[in-house]
Design goal:
The protein contains eleven helices and 14 strands. The protein has 374 residues and is α/β, with parallel strands linked by helices. A seven-stranded parallel sheet has the order 5-4-3-2-1-6-10. Strands 11-12-14-13 form a four-stranded mixed sheet. The protein has a three-stranded antiparallel sheet with strand order 7-8-9.
């Protein structure tokens, strides 16, 4: 009881009495709804059908932090992956699509609703959402019925292996860990969970809600992620860190091994294991995985010419939006993405380099026709 009291006082201090009262009313309304709702037998059966479906296998869970720009994501092509929120902004750099997908944030959900009701969910084996969020936002009534969607009950914080009952615990990643454990995965590697969020510069809507004014988000892999017009919540990194500590204890006790393979970042709840330690592809196979991310029709000879003879940029000042193709080293490339991604698609890192291709260039068409770049 003391913990609940302390949490309430902390919430009032951090976010104000009005936000605390609004949240309390919303949560109370949700609990009242639960008393009178009928059991969703179809959803419960779906959960029973997928329990331990992937027993003993390994999976990768991707946050959306900027360290993804330093991560050789092409290595994950034949792995089980779980991703979240606006991961589709990353598709243009990948040869694979995630197996599992989830959103728990109401602002992200509403912002992406057109995509969710469009074709986006066709990309995934299964997608997971709260039926009603703890803030009493009904996700279920807004989404078109789909066979591959399963609904979570996220009313109560904490960790569970008795899904659909699942705590969000300050991060959709924590919900994802519970889902993967329920599916039977016993080895989970975390990528792109940097735990570093920049100070807000957008329009403040409330004590915890903001609206971005520009495409200058440095807290995610793409500056458009929390870009112009996007609404988002303030991240409480201190509480997130505590919840990840709780996650490590819970899953360790239940035989699920979680490792942090994020490059850099501030997440220290899980033991670290470098992503390169997890793969042992021969050079030719790894090169083909990288080529597939650019275009699977590109021959090795054409790629090598493309890779070795393109213009090399060594400083930010040398970058020009008129460059059709250029390469950088891995140090400059990861930082240049924030500027160049509006005009160029970045690929890498591979062999400590990135290659950037003009979005409006016909060079991709040449590649499609299996012509060597001139």
């Amino acid at each position: 009881m003391r913990g609940v009291y302390d949490q309430a006082i902390s919430s009032i201090k951090e976010e104000g009495l009005s936000v605390f009262l609004d949240r309390s009313v919303r949560y109370s309304t949700l609990k009242l709804k639960r008393l009178f709702e009928s059991e969703d037998k179809e959803n419960l059966q779906k959960w029973k059908d997928i329990k331990n479906k992937y027993k003993g296998k390994r999976a990768f869970i991707l946050g959306n932090g900027p360290s993804l720009n330093e991560t050789p994501l092409y290595l994950l092509k034949d792995e089980f992956t779980m991703c979240f929120n606006r991961v589709n902004m990353l598709y243009e750099r990948l040869s694979w699509k995630p197996d599992f997908f989830a959103i728990t944030d109401d602002l992200v959900y509403m912002d992406m609703l057109d995509d969710l009701n469009g074709k986006l969910l066709e990309d995934f084996e299964y997608s997971f959402f709260p039926d009603i969020t703890p803030y009493n936002i009904n996700f279920k009534e807004k989404l078109k019925a789909r066979d591959n969607v399963l609904w979570l009950h996220t009313d109560t914080p904490g960790f569970s292996l008795n899904l659909p009952y699942c705590g969000i615990n300050q991060s959709v990643v924590n919900a994802g860990l519970q889902i993967l454990a329920y599916l039977g995965f016993t080895e989970i590697y975390v990528l792109g969970v940097d735990m570093s969020f920049a100070s807000h510069t957008g329009k403040k809507l409330s004590s915890r809600d903001w609206e971005a004014k520009d495409n200058n988000d440095i807290s995610h892999f793409d500056p458009r992620y929390w870009g112009k017009g996007k609404k988002y919540h303030t991240a409480r990194v201190d509480i997130m860190a505590e919840k990840f500590d709780d996650a490590y204890k819970f899953f360790t006790q239940n035989g699920v091994n979680i490792y942090n393979s994020t490059i850099g970042g501030k997440l220290e709840a899980f033991p670290r294991k470098a992503i390169r330690e997890l793969f042992n592809y021969p050079e030719e196979e790894e090169r083909q995985l990288f080529i597939d991310g650019i275009n699977p029709k590109l021959s090795v000879d054409a790629f090598l010419k493309f890779w070795n003879e393109s213009k090399v940029i060594k400083t930010v000042e040398e970058f020009s939006v008129t460059d059709e193709v250029f390469t950088t080293d891995n140090v400059l490339g990861k930082d240049l993405i924030r500027t160049a991604i509006l005009s160029h698609i970045p690929f890498g890192p591979y062999q400590n380099k990135y290659i950037f291709i003009d979005r409006n260039s016909n060079i991709l068409q040449k590649i499609n026709n299996q012509d060597e770049p001139k």
